[in-house]
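Deliverable D5.2: sample structural annotation.
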Amino acid sequence: MFGNINREASIVHIDCDAFFASCEQAKDPRLRGHPIVTGKERGIISSASYEARALGIKRGISLREAKAICPELVILPSDYETYSIYSRRLFQIIERFTPTVEEFSIDEAYCDIAGLRRIHRLPYPAIAKLIKSTIQKELDVTVSVGVSLTKTLAKIASRHRKPDGFTEVSSCKLKEFLKNVPLERVCGFGPNTVALLNKCGIYMVSDYVARPVGFSDKLLGKTGVELWYELCGNPIYKVCPGVKDKYLSISKTKTFVPPSCDKSLVKAHLMRNLESAFIKLRRHGLSTSSLTIYLRKSDFEGYYLEGRLDRHSSATLDFTGLCSRLFDALFVENAEYRATGVLLSDILPEGADNRTLFDDPAKIAKIADISKSIDVVNGVYGKYAVHLAAAHQALSNKNPHPRNEPVRRKTELLKGETARKRLRIPRLELV
């Protein structure tokens, strides 16, 4: 059942601890040891430091609830520019130790250190510990690290002793380790899968791998079989170096303040999200035929509506009419909205040609060229220098509001910087 006991654990999963909050504490040491959260601009917590989590404050709850729990809570606007800078530096540090690094998310990475003991003159667990200590020393943020035989096991291991944890799960320790791992810890087992397995008397990962692989195949299909092998220590999923460039979907969501019942303003925010999603779609050379829009009211209730084109496209203008029709069907007069979003799905490589007999090839090519020309202009003069007229109200609407406080990185520019072009360095506070 379990993999070769002589094979050594060399797959590493690195997961930052409360990444956004940790970045804030790293750039301003005065925040160390204090309960802090980010997400002031949304009204909902997007990241909470471990000091805040210890008080019961967690991601997703409203700032009002959090303040009731801890009146001294430090609430900060999200500084995504700085977080992306820290993320890039995080991966650059990991790449010093191994070229095989997979960027799983902004604060999460897999890496394969097999065969590198001779170069670093260290055993595999020591190499992983050195990566961990180097990140903490250079970025002043902590990470939790798991080392094991497969990606699935390494991810479970990294979560085992959060925060600032290190866990190695070798072949000889695997059987004992899995006895204490609930199914919810497995990346790939969602709530419905866990409920199904529970009905079969399976509650821990050790129960799952104790069943024959045929049971997994019959109950969960291909994914169940792959996870069964991964959890037994037999690698199925490879560490894929480079930035993620394959997408099943692309989404863009944004909260705005104050909430509004102004139909034209809410639609403008939706159109801005549409533009952002298609900019990303074209950047990765992709196209889509399916658009889902999302509206969230001030009471946090959300509503979705999907529409489709009869062909794939990467041009924003091909979807503005569809987006408007979906919005008109979903918008409720006199209701107050606080967020909009779009989701692009059914994604294929750009150029996938499934036009119908009645499409106008010249018009399709012209609209595609317009979007690409806008990308070129915006690349020179800044994002949204040229934008949809329907999105203009969202871009120009800067109503004063306590939650509209800009981050310091955007207001206190370094010499030579502009509002759109800045140096890729964080602003640090000296104490």
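Annotation notes: The chain has three domains: 19-82, 90-231, 250-399. The first strand starts at residue 11 and ends at 16.
The annotation will be released with the project's public dataset once the embargo ends.
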